[in-house]
Design a protein that fits this description.
284 residues, alpha+beta, D-amino Acid Aminotransferase, Chain A, domain 1, D-amino Acid Aminotransferase, Chain A, domain 2, nine-stranded mixed beta sheet, six-stranded antiparallel beta sheet, 8 helices, 15 strands, globular, binds pyridoxal-5'-phosphate, L-valine-2-oxoglutarate transaminase activity
């Protein structure tokens, strides 16, 4: 696999980042995951806009232009022969040459890394037909979840807790209300209304969330942006999650309680179809 590191395209074995890199020693960096379908990038503009917001929030200089990122992503897709898959992009505060809590000087070059992950047929994943089973667990992340930082240890622990319990993923819960999934936004459907937590620093502002809510409203579906409890979710007609890599993924059980009839719901199925159709059309 050819990967990108600081303007170089290298075989993955040859790519190097310093041991002092702030991303490595302090999780001082941000990332994006962009899906590729039919060799084209999905929601590129949305991911670029959020990358810039994350960098600004952490006062990390953005070393590249939108055009540079686009050109690099397209080159990686081509060099690695990616039809369907994802592109991972990470920008860290760079290498100060030593370890120090204070930020390095302004002119320190941020580190940019990009790599592809090939996932042939990812839009037809069998899981989308049977749905995921999830557990819930207390949300113990920091309070700025609107910044897409590389500090993913808590979501990783929650994912392992889900796996240990035979589930596919975990929803995180704070003050009795669901915030989001480990790496996705969370939704329920009750009497035809789609309910998902409102935007704030409590959750990541999902690019897929924004697109799916827009398509839902355009299709005259009712949308309510508000938080909900685990009990309300277990009593809902449907549940699902959204993310750049899972698209719209139905949820069929929460903490062992079946949702609706335990099968993939019609709203989730329809939103997945609309999202995939529309984003393929708009892909660049
Ligand atoms: N919430 C969290 C915590 C995430 O990590 C992600 C994606 O990685 C999402 C939501 C979904 O965001 P997007 O739709 O932009 O992929």
């Amino acid at each position: 696999r050819i990967v990108y590191v600081n303007e170089d395209y290298l075989p993955e074995e040859e790519a190097r980042v310093s041991v002092f890199d702030r991303g490595f020693v302090m999780a001082d960096g941000v990332y994006e995951v962009v899906s590729v379908l039919d060799g084209k990038l999905i929601d590129f503009d949305g991911h670029q806009a959020r990358l810039k917001r994350s960098l600004e929030a952490l006062q990390i200089r953005n070393p590249l232009s939108d055009e540079d990122y686009l050109a690099a992503m397209r080159k990686l897709v081509e060099d690695n022969d990616i039809t369907d898959g994802t592109i991972y992009l990470q920008v860290t505060r760079g290498n100060p040459g030593d370890r120090d809590f204070a930020f390095p000087p302004e002119d320190t070059q941020p580190t940019v890394v990009m790599f592809t992950q090939s996932k042939p047929g990812m839009a037809d994943s069998p899981a989308a037909k049977t749905g995921w089973k999830i557990i819930t667990t207390e949300d113990q992340r920091w309070a700025r979840r609107d910044i897409k930082t590389v500090q993913l240890l808590f979501p990783s622990l929650a994912k392992m807790e889900a796996k240990a319990k035979g589930a596919d993923d975990a929803w995180l819960v704070e003050d009795g209300k669901v915030t989001e999934g480990t790496s996705n936004n969370a939704y329920i459907v009750k009497n035809g209304t789609i309910i998902t937590r409102e935007l704030s620093s409590d959750i990541l502002h999902g690019i897929t969330r924004a697109a799916v809510l827009r398509f839902a409203r355009e299709a005259q579906m009712k949308v309510e942006e508000r938080s909900f409890t685990v009990a309300e979710a277990q009593d809902a007609d449907e549940a699902f999650v959204t993310s750049a890599s899972a698209f719209v993924m139905p949820i069929v059980a929460i903490d062992g309680a079946q949702i609706g009839d335990g099968k993939v719901g019609s709203v989730a199925r329809r939103l997945r179809e609309i999202y995939l159709d529309e984003s393929r059309k708009a892909a660049i």
